[in-house]
Amino acid sequence: MFSSELVRAQLKRAAAGLPMNWTVKLKPSLSRPRIYDPYTDFNAIRNDGWYGCYVIYAPDPQPKVSTGPSRIVYIGKGQIDVRIRSHLTTKPELLRLSHKIGLKFVAITWGDIVEPDSPAAWLCEQILLHEHKSMFNSLPKFNKQGPTSEIIAWRRALRWSKPGPKAILARYGS
User: Fold this and answer.
1) Residue 85: exposure state from Cβ atoms within 10 A (0-12, 13-18, ≥19)
2) Which of 17, 39, 64, 66 gives 20 to 30 Å between its CA and that of 3?
3) CA gap 39, 27 in Å, rounded
């Protein structure tokens, strides 16, 4: 088990080009895909204890409706039920898209990190944003801010067990 602060410290060492004495091995837990709309029971997500990052995607995009560079339209982090629910009011374009083509989301956490906190969720989000940009040459449609520059060295500091970030992004984005 690792604290997210320890993981972040390793990431900073890797980004600075310092030698890695050890790497952190993380195993993701993915929720089942859920429908993203105002009628979803977000309290059920809270009961699952999901705190981490999430991917909102179009399971069956329509040819005339743009989802951006991939089927993934947004990658975020935080307390999943609160953050996803808030997007329904703070991101009206996302709500309109969910009505137009139907969206789903999947939550991702790491059981290896002792506390499900903000740095762990931040790290997951940053890796997914970095890998999305690498795979699809752009951020998801509704993400405005890209990953931090220190995330480029994440593979030196971390070992993300299967399914890895590229597999997750390919599954929900391709």
Assistant:
1) middle
2) 17
3) 31
Higher pLDDT, 51 or 38: 38
Residue 65 C-alpha from the chain's centroid:
23
Size (the chain), residues: 174
Sorted by where each begins, the domain ranges of the chain are: 4-173
* β-pairing verdict for 158-160 and 24-26: parallel
Specify the pTM: 0.90
> Kindly report the CA angle at 46 between 43 and 51, in degrees rounded to 5?
145
Give the pLDDT of residue 113. 54
Q: Which of 161, 143, 147, 115 is nearest to 57 (CA)?
A: 143
